[in-house]
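Hi C.,

You asked whether I'd gotten around to modeling the 352-residue construct. I have! Everything is below, sequence then structure, no commentary in between.
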Amino acid sequence: MSGPRTLYDYDPGELPLPEGESAYRRSQVRDWLYVKGAGEFSSMTNLPAGLRNWLAERYVIEPFAATERHPSTDGSVRYLFTLHDGQRTEAVYMPYRNRRTVCLSSMVGCPAGCAFCATGAMGFGRNLSRGEIVGQLLAVARGEGIEPRTVRNAVLMGMGEALLNYGNALGAVHTMIDPHALGMSARRITLSTVGLPSRMRKLADEGLPLVLAVSLHAPDEETRRRIIPTAHAQSIDDIIDALRYWQERIGRRVTIEYTMLDGVNDQPWQARALAARMKGLKAHVNLIPFNAWPGGEFAETPPQRLEEFEAILAGAGLSVSVRFSRGRDAGGACGQLALQSGRPAALPMASA
């Protein structure tokens, strides 16, 4: 990260203040940031002008130089953020009848290189800071005209491999669950990984009851390495062992993400092999129809074969569902994030 530092980079209980300033001013700043969602220091009207000026001379609130809003016909919205160093990343807002969810990125691009994913085709840019991760949620709230604390669900499933940006991703999670900041439940935060056993075990040792989602995408090593070129470094057996460790420490079921690719990983024998892999593991399998993107080499599994695959898993006693991604027409569905611009509704860096 380069450029001015955002206050979101700090632990909410350790926000900077001038020497000798009353400590209660920190709680006022924190309230403006995370409860009221202020985007400018001038909005913090109960702070002395001198303190506002001191903060404005040293820090920024908004970690983005520009924001683009790309709505989908299904009600979701893809946000394209330009960072202060000129690089870009994305988030997706997904409103449902009884909840609001934001899909957050942890990186610019992604080093995992999943062959079906437009983000993977971009390669890796850089890690996002703690503030650049949590700042996406705050910017989305401002863009949607809602209070930050009305977003009760977050998924670290956007650009990047969160466990390769461990410190910043976990820091963002701590800001989200801090009762004095966004006050979210850890049980409503999902962290997705391509499957990094040592980092999964480290995360388990943190003791946070997050939802852990593993992008498996194949039950056999040969197919998985075709889909995920970097998978040679981590065997499926090692990933499953790490998931068992996670359950021993956290006690929650895990989610297995499985993108269905026509003729690649969607055959009946692969469904049976996946069911065998899941024996003894408390897991839910998300079958995700492939979301096409320009230049992608794969095709979507036909509906009948998808239903057959799902039926085999269910018949083996697995919890399974088909997840139809939102935001496909806006380039915001699973596997589509690729910094598409187009003709957005550009948003100013608005205050609360």
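If it helps when you're writing up: The chain has one domain: 64-347.

Thanks,
B.
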